[in-house]
Amino acid sequence: MCGLDNAAGNVYCPGMSDASAAYKAAYDVAVIGGGPAGLAAAIALAETGANTALIARRAPYADNRTTALLGGSVDLLQQLEVWPRCKDSAEPLRAMRLVDDTGRLIRAPEVRFSCEEIGLDAFGYNIENRVLVTALEQRAAELSGLTRLDDEAEAVTPEDADVAVRTPLGKSLSARLVIGADGRQSLCREAAGIKVRRRDLNQAAITFNISHSRPHRNISTEFHTPQGPCVFVPLPGDRCSVVWVAAPKEAERLIALSDDELSEAAEKQSHSILGRIKVESGRHLFPLAIEQPGQFAHHRIALVGEAAHVLPPIGAQGLNMGLRDAADIADIVRDAMRLGEDPGAPQVLKRYNSARRADIASRTFVIDIANRSLLSDFLPMQSLRAAGLHLIGSFGPLRRLAMREGLAPSWRPRRQVS
User: Taking a C-beta distance cutoff of 8 angstroms, is the pair 403, 113 a contact?
Assistant: First the structure.
């Protein structure tokens, strides 16, 4: 694979001679991290005309987790010429059901959201992350303005005029702006001196995929239990992805079950709405937390994806926010360079901070409150939650507002295409 890419001259692989390596160059922007948010940021930045480097190991995506890409994310992937490569492997989400399965005395009514009510063919699409990453990798390889280093960052050092980046193999480059897309344990965030607030939620999520005997009819169903939500999200065919949030001990019990036992447990949790359920191979367990950095850019480093925000998997907001991070930093860099500004200058980073703060803060607040209200044993809180869901379900204008805001903030300007 490296040999083919090197023929195009836009990737460094270990073993290349110093004479042919592009890694010694200075760049306008360097993106560190090759997950979906990092790849999208690198593509979007390269398409602005910025001389861009992507520092990330090429490796097959390791698991079968999925993402529900909501409307604005699909629009961005379409603009980046990524969506046509993976659309056929994604399943449209046309309705969403919220079902109170707490068994409490005070319970919320079922709430149903339909995309047709706000004039859409689908709220979004559920896609396996490995399919999405493959499509992003294919598009990234086509861009002459994007140099790929098949390596990882070992040291990131902000300086007055640029940021120095060194890899474990002793290679180095510099960039006027570095994009930290390097996840929760972000080296870039640490290098920028950005502090992060973390709160463990005393919950864990188990994720897996299933096949089932009844059609899902493109309906995503979220059961609210006393320990957290359990959501069944349609995949192509008679299949769904499952995200089951529970107390840590219960999550550990679930993941330790045999395939047959977990299939039975999932069928019981779904109240058999999907018929007979069979769990597919591959399941994952991870603790839940909320992480919020004090700022999203500092010292020539801007954060995207999980380096910038960590949320529980409620409302499918995580990667969708990461893709909005990518879109916003690309727009801000494009505008700065058109004005002859340094893309890593403090005033440019200030614009990124301002662009992302309201979106991330509001989403984090809403998801946190929704999760707290579900877990609360305080009767007035349960009553308030039930009344709120009843109001959304029965009052059309409020329900339509909730749907539109759930897809993307309505106050965000539409992204310009270079």
Answer: yes
